[in-house]
């Protein structure tokens, strides 16, 4: 009997790109947020050996390069459990969309594997394996609102933000994250825009200070005009966090800049590229406003869906539903 789990997506509240590290990755600062859009992962373990991947989407690899394959291979070795593992991936999230689809799939496969085997890895071991497979994976072991540092794999739970309406636009554009990083490096290799080591450090510290400032006030409700209490999410948005990838992705794909503009015109109090894109999202104060924005984007020929952000508890409770 296969174990079926939801594999939720994420968006990024701000993303700061730092210096290229000796290991070939860039130093990053970001705030991850899980959202209610998801793929479906099914895992079945039987006698034998080997790992098989099934997916109807031809863009999803079915060999050792698939993140689900890699994490299951590591987990089976760590659990010292033989068996033939079949992983079925039902894709609903875009491939190369910036929503963490492949990373979320891997963590979902790990949870399903544990349940199928009736064995569990210790939390630190799961985090170690997840980080080894990919930078975005550890955030999905935490869920909710998560600070990501290092190359994104060092994750720290932040005070959970309330669930809020969200519109995610998914233009049919596949953006390679490695290429987006290369474009970033190329952009700032020009003398006119060169980022010196000192400037890079200042930019990373600036992001850290913005998050620290938010944390210092996020638990204090404040009243503004009309008597409405502002949410911690609005406080975070007011720090001015932005996604650095927009500087290199928007010039190449102007439609994504226009999608962001549409979201803002339709009332989003924050709109941004997610990861390296192409998914672009907006946060709204009401479901009605989110639905109107979705309708407008669809009229413009841009696939879009209204959803919500997920708190850490919601995320954990819905995985095995």
Q: What labels describe this entry?
A:
single chain, 321 residues, alpha+beta, Alpha-Beta Plaits, 2 domains, four-stranded antiparallel sheet, 10 strands, 38% helix
**Low-pLDDT segments:** 220-230
| Estimated structural class | alpha+beta
Number of helices: 11
Q: Output the CATH class name of the largest domain.
A: Alpha Beta
Q: Number of folding domains?
A: 2
- Which fold name is given in CATH as the topology of the largest domain? Ribosomal Protein S5, domain 2
CATH hierarchy: architecture of the largest domain = 2-Layer Sandwich
The beta-strand count equals 10
Question: In terms of quaternary structure, what is this?
Answer: single chain
How far apart are the termini? 16 Å
Level of helix content? 25-40%
Mean pLDDT: 91
Main pleated-sheet profile: 6 strands, mixed
Q: What's the gyration radius in Å?
A: 20 Å
Strand content: 15-25%
Secondary structure layout plus pairing:
Layout: E1 3-20, E2 26-46, E3 51-55, H1 67-79, E4 84-90, H2 101-117, H3 123-133, H4 139-142, E5 145-149, E6 154-157, E7 165-169, H5 177-187, H6 197-217, H7 232-237, H8 246-252, H9 254-265, E8 270-273, E9 280-283, H10 287-299, E10 304-308, H11 312-318
Helix pairs in contact: 1-2, 1-3, 8-9
Describe the fold and architecture:
- The strands form two sheets. Strands 1, 2, 3, 4, 5 and 6 form a six-stranded mixed sheet that branches. Strands 8-9-7-10 form a four-stranded antiparallel sheet.
- 38% of the residues lie in helices and 24% in strands.
- The two termini are 16 Å apart.
- It has 321 residues and is α+β, with helices and mostly antiparallel strands.
- It has eleven helices and ten strands.
């Amino acid at each position: 009997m296969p174990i079926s789990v939801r594999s939720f997506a994420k968006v990024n509240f701000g993303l700061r790109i730092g210096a290229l590290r000796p290991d070939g990755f860039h130093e990053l600062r970001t705030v991850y947020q899980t959202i209610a859009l998801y793929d479906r992962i099914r895992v079945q373990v039987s006698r034998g050996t080997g790992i098989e991947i099934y997916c109807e989407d031809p863009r999803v690899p079915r060999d050792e390069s698939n993140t689900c394959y890699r994490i299951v291979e590591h987990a089976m070795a760590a659990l010292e459990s033989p068996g033939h593992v079949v992983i079925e991936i039902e894709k609903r999230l875009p491939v190369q969309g910036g929503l963490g689809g492949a990373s979320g799939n891997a963590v979902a496969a790990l949870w399903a594997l544990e349940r199928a085997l009736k064995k569990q890895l210790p939390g630190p071991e799961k985090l170690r394996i997840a980080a080894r497979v990919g930078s975005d994976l550890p955030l999905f072991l935490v869920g909710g609102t998560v600070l990501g540092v290092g190359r994104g794999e060092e994750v720290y739970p932040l005070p959970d933000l309330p669930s809020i309406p969200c519109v995610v636009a998914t233009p049919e554009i596949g953006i390679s994250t490695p290429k987006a990083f290369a474009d970033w490096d190329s952009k700032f290799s020009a003398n006119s825009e060169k980022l010196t080591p000192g400037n890079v450090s200042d930019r990373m510290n600036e992001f850290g200070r913005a998050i620290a400032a938010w944390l210092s006030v996020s638990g204090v409700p404040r009243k503004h005009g009309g008597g409405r209490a502002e949410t911690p999410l609005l406080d975070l948005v007011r720090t001015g966090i932005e996604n650095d990838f927009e500087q290199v992705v928007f010039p190449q794909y102007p439609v994504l800049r226009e999608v962001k503009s549409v979201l803002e015109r339709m009332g989003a109090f924050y709109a941004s590229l997610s990861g390296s894109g192409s998914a672009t999202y907006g946060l709204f104060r009401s479901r009605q406003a989110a639905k109107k924005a979705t309708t407008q984007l669809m009229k413009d020929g841009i696939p879009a869906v209204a959803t919500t952000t997920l708190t850490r508890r919601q995320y954990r409770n819905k995985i095995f539903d």
